[in-house]
Amino acid sequence: MVFLVVALLAVPATHAVGIVLPLSGPRQQRGQMLLHSIQMKADEINGAGGIDGRRIELIVRDTGNQPELSRKAATELAADPRVLAVIGHYDNEAAAAAVPIYDQNRIPVFLPSIGNKDSFANSTWAFSGTYDDASEAQIMAVFIKLIRHHEEVLVFHTSDIYEDLWAAFQHKAELIGLKARGIVFASQITGAVAADFVAKNVPSLPAGVQAIVVLGQSANGGALIRQLRERGIKVPIYGNSRVSAGELFEVIGPHTQDLHAAFPFMFDTGSDKALEFRREYVRRYNSEPSAFGIFAYDGLGMIAEGIRVKGASRAAIRDYLASLDSPTRAYDGASGISYF
C-alpha cells in the first residue's frame, strides 16, 4: 500500500497592515483621528469582499508619539511576516526614529502627515502622503509678498526638526525681496510658550514690520499668537499648517481676527469623494477629520491597490507605490490624485 503525503502551503487568511500612531499622550486625539480614517477604508474594502477574498487586517501599535516607542513598534511589525506594509507616525521625530528600521527590513511605510524630508531622505521604502514642508514655507513667502503685498515680516520659528521651514522661507524671501527677521521660540511639541515670552522678546513691534509669521505647532504657536494679540499687536499673522492643526482655537481663544494659515487640503473645495468621506466620518465619530485623516484613508487605499495590481508582498507594494510618479500615473483617491 502506498501512502501519499501532501504538504499544504499555509495561505494567510488576511492581508495585514501595521498601524503605528500616538493613541496615548498629547497627540492621542490626532492619532485616534488617523486610526478612525484608516478603519473607514478597511471597512469599505472588507465590505466589498476584501482583496481576492481576503480581508484587510489592521495590526495597531501605540507609540505615544515617542521616538523610542516608535522604533520598538517598527521593529515588532517588521519582524511579523504577516505585515505587508505600515501606515503611521504623526510627527517628524517619531517617523525619523522608525524609518531606518523599515528600510533595513524592506517594508513599505506610508506617512500621512510627514512632510519633512529629513525624516526619510535616504529611504527607498518610505512614502510621504502629504506636501513638502519646505515647499509650503516658500509658497507662504510668495503669498505674503506678492498677494498680500507685505514688504517686511517678523518670523517666529522653532529650533527643532521644523527649522527647515524657516530656512526655506528665508531663502525664498531673499529671492523675492521680502525682508524677514527671525526669532526662535519654544520648540517642545507639547510645550506652551513661556507666559512672558512676547513681553521679553517683542516689547513692541519693530519699525517697518507689516506682518508676523509663526512656524511651529498648534500648542506653542497658538500660545505665541495669543500673547501677541494680548500685547496689542494687531498686524496680520500667518501660520504654517502645523500651527493651524489640532487645538489652535482652544489655545488662542477669541483672537482669530486677521489670522491666516496654510493648509494642503480643504474639504469644502474637494471632490464628491472627499465630501462623502467627511460626511461618513462625522456620522461615525461625531467629530471633524483633518486633511491628514483623508490622506491616511487614501494611504490604505493605495496599499490595497498595490496588493491587487502587484501582489501580496512587501516588495510588490513598494514597487506599486514607487510607480505612482506623475499626474498620469497617480492614485485617484478621496483627496484627489496622489503620486510621489
Structure commentary:
The protein is elongated. The strands form 3 sheets. Strands 2-1-3-4-5 form a 5-stranded parallel β-sheet, with helices on both faces. It has 340 residues and is an alpha/beta fold. Strand 11 and strand 12 form a beta hairpin. Helices cover 43% and strands 17% of the residues. The model has no long low-confidence stretch (mean pLDDT 91). The termini are far apart. The chain is built from 12 helices and 12 strands. The relative contact order is 0.13.
Write the layout of secondary structure elements.
Layout: E1 14-21, H1 28-47, E2 55-62, H2 67-79, E3 83-88, H3 92-105, E4 109-111, E5 126-128, H4 133-147, E6 152-157, H5 163-176, E7 179-184, H6 197-201, E8 211-215, H7 218-230, E9 237-239, H8 241-244, H9 248-252, E10 259-261, H10 272-285, H11 291-310, H12 314-323, E11 331-333, E12 336-338
Parallel strand pairs: 1-2, 1-3, 3-4, 4-5, 6-7, 6-8, 8-9, 9-10
Antiparallel strand pairs: 11-12
Helix pairs in contact: 1-11, 2-3, 4-5, 11-12
